[in-house]
UniProtKB/TrEMBL annotation:
One of its GO terms (biological process) is cell wall organization. Belongs to the FemABX family. This is Aminoacyltransferase. GO terms for molecular function: aminoacyltransferase activity. PROSITE patterns: FEMABX. InterPro entries: Acyl_CoA_acyltransferase, FEMABX, PG_Glycine_Bridge_Synth. Keywords: Acyltransferase, Cell shape, Cell wall biogenesis/degradation, Peptidoglycan synthesis, Transferase. It comes from Nocardioides turkmenicus.
Amino acid sequence: MTFTVRPISPAEHLAHVRSRRSVSFLQTPAWADVKTEWRSESLGWYAGDQLAGAGLVLHRPVPRLGHTLAYLPWGPDIDWTGGLTVWFPPLVSYLRSQGAFAIRIAPPVPTDTWSATQVKEGIADPEVTRLTDLPGRPDPVGAEVTRYLRDSGWIPQNPEDGFGAGQPQFTYEIRLRHPDGTARSEDDVLRGMNQLWRRNIKKAAKAGVEVTTSAGGEDLKAFHDLYVHTAERDRFTPRPLAYFETMFAALSAEETGRVALYLARHDGDLVAATIYVRVGGYAWYVYGASSTEKRDVRGSNACQWAMIRDSLAAGCDVYDLRGITPTLSAEDPHVGLIQFKVGTGGEAVRYVGEWDLPLRPILYRAFDLYMRRRSR
């Protein structure tokens, strides 16, 4: 089979997304409207007149270089189990013709998976410091994709801690279906959680924590105030309110119910808030915030449980708690993140990660130097 790659309209792209069981929200045409600082385009892979795959490309201009980095976050949406030699050459040819000096992709393909039990045992073992010290369950498709990219000149961009400038390589996910494809029940998911998580969910309910959902609007300001408070406490740089307003406007316009705000209140006080995104059979916990006060009422657990229940009700296959670092050392400050998420049951997943293909090596080296200097 031979493919050609050419631009498609947002409407054609959205029709493709809707025809799939799921596609990452970062590969929907609406995401282009969120990343306003990038030039964007939707591309389609055609076999004759048949659209077989699609991808959202974000073109990042680099000062003084006159060319762009072409970035496909968590994509493209193609058949990764097929021969990649038919999918990638037409993409490379097209983006080269559009002035890209390099292409960056983040294939939505796992390479290894670790159960919650393995992760907990690893944390308890002083000789284990990283997930990769444990024997994971390998994925042959991920291994083949990795081999193809390496042999084809792509360069891995995966930092040691799992968090780079783009998408996390390690995530934590809860499977919402049994291996035979049947849906799990709420009770079954609860049984998969550890005792502390079950206790905290019950504690939140007993304390009178109420979780409501919102399509954004005025509630976004309340979320953002709590999010900024969380950023100050946990020492990270928060995004501006305008970013979230743009996100809700774009995703909501594309599909009703695609994005939602979950707000946990206790006696009228906002104690936790989260942002939830769903595309087809896949749901994500994208952002979270919590109050330093009233942490004992467990608003964060209440929000998570509400999002998981809604994912089950929607018939989702996966609830994705997003990025973790691969550290399991008790001395690493990041270990608390995986400890919180592992309590939900589920599994830790390593993906192929982000890879760059230099198309103009001199410009790519200049870009790499620019990024290194900027990160100092």
